[in-house]
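S.,

Sequence below, as promised.
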Amino acid sequence: MGSSPPSVTLADAAAAAAVHVSVSRHGPDVAVSDVHMDSRAVTPGSIYVAIRGARADGHDFIGAALERGAVALVVDRPVDYDMPYLLTQDTRAALGWVAAAVHGWPADLLDLIGITGTNGKTTVAHMLAAMAGASGREMAVIGTVSANLDDLDGSPRTTPEASDLQRMLRHLAERGRITDVAIEVSSHAMEMGRINGTRFGTVAFTNLSQDHLDYHETMEQYFAAKAKLFQEHWAPHGVIWTGDEWSERLASESAIPVVRVGAGSGNDVSVTYREDTPTGSSFDISIGDRTRSVRTALAGRFNVANAAVALTCAHLHGWDMDGCVERLAAMQPIPGRYNTIANEFGFWVVVDYAHSPDSMEATIAETRKLVSGKIIAIGGAGGDRDQEKRPLMGAALALADTTIITTDNPRSEDPHLIEQQVLAGIAERSNVVVEPDRRLAIRDGLSAAKPGDAVLILGKGHETGQEFADVTLPFDDATVATEELRRLGNQR
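The prediction came back faster than expected:
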């Protein structure tokens, strides 16, 4: 499916953006080869898009962009540089459309599936990637844990900035090996226009629970941001797991036809739970005129929901369903998503990315079904994020038999203050311990565990660093837990 890079001019980019935002072109037309919003990343022949951010105004860096070879600008006010430019009121909104045009509308050269929701996006994306080969397809994943991107770097964001996303899609399309891409679409991405210029074959919704209210302020605004993905200019149809009130509302309000997937009655795709064990889950799924038995090595009913959504997306794209079921059964766990760590002590150790009240509660509840002993939960809350959810996270963590509150990624905030806000949600604290040092917290949890127990290390999952105000220190929960298990073995 490879193709040559497009030959595009500033006028082409202006025409593409003008369909969606008000834009006027000033100065002569010029050939352009790339689009950047970071002046430091500009390459010769690029368009530099100046964006006003919370901390800096991109217009202040136009000179730096020109020095690096920019040949045109996108700005929200007239500039004094002798340089062709596009003038628009919203440069961020224009960015994606301009970048898509410059890169030859790469989304049209690939089959894309967009996944949104508070939890489960990464898991659904990787399940799809694992199943794609059943139909002779090759899928890349762009998201929190990107995959199959060859030598392309992943993004520090769940959904890359629009200019980066279009460039990534162009590279994938040119190589010809990749036929499909699963993209995690965050609520921030919807609000900030990061998928502008992208059209999906299918969009999917997993669930919604409190998160990111530092940005969206209310659950209503958070829902509205997610719901924007279910419109005709993004995809012809959608898939919704009907597990909460928000998904029911989205199913009724969606502007595009949707396939309802769930365990209850009234769904288009029906799921029947069969077995949950520490080594995985099994269920039956009825799609079309067939019911298939499915097994996945990922434990917990939330992963049954993720698998059902992924299978439904695969069905809509015409993939071989029997092959998809086989590949799903053979799929290995995803980094940081309910990963179990083997040990000699007879208790269960799990590292999971759960970092919202709902996901923490679900992880503890599902684990309780799988183990015979007690649950020890270790976690905290990230700094510079929604403070309102911190007491709720404390209440969720306290559902364990023993709770150890520790430092997550404090970023610019005082870790002690964050811990106190988490503790504020816990009324009964007789089985609650505060240990700010995350390694020591993990050590304490493992030392207290007995055969049949489960130690849940929550919040950071796949992350390999711990973010403080002025430094990110190496810290991988799975690596630290393995080291501490080895240490425990040497002591016993």
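DSSP finds 16 helices and 24 strands in the chain.

Coffee later?
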